[in-house]
């Protein structure tokens, strides 16, 4: 897996500047939206800031990363990925493990969205979707809830 920048660790440090408006972060470029990696990471950080504190306390062993693209070329449309053991599947054996990992993919998100507002909304949906997997909620239920 490629190394990614740890958004989770940086979200608190950037929170003070998070309220500032994006400076023309997204513009049309032959049908593909453009947004810097830093601006996209800030969107992911803002989505994490919206997670209720009582749920955040249950995510102390989760690292969130932003990557450009999924490693497998067949996953070009994959917006996010949860890797780990959901809370609902952990037993007393669960200890001394590496953190679970949530990866949000910038490239597929920008390719699928038409406007800046679409990127903001889709990023929030993707972050919630991947966090839900950490809590043991499957794709079928997420689709029912509108987070598919």
State the main characteristics.
6 strands, 148 residues, disordered N terminus, 4-stranded mixed beta sheet, two-stranded antiparallel ribbon, Zincin-like, 15% strand, alpha+beta
Q: If you had to describe this structure to a student in words, what would you say it looks like?
A:
- The chain is α+β, with helices and mostly antiparallel strands and 148 residues long.
- It has one domain (5-144): 2-Layer Sandwich (Zincin-like), CATH 3.30.2010.20.
- 39% of the residues lie in helices and 15% in strands.
- The chain has six helices and six strands, in the order βαββααβββααα.
- The protein has helices at 7-14, 37-49, 53-56, 106-112, 116-134, 139-144; strands at 5-6, 28-29, 32-33, 62-67, 80-83, 100-105.
- Strands 1-4-6-5 form a four-stranded mixed beta sheet. A two-stranded antiparallel ribbon has the order 2-3.
- The protein starts with a strand and ends with a helix.
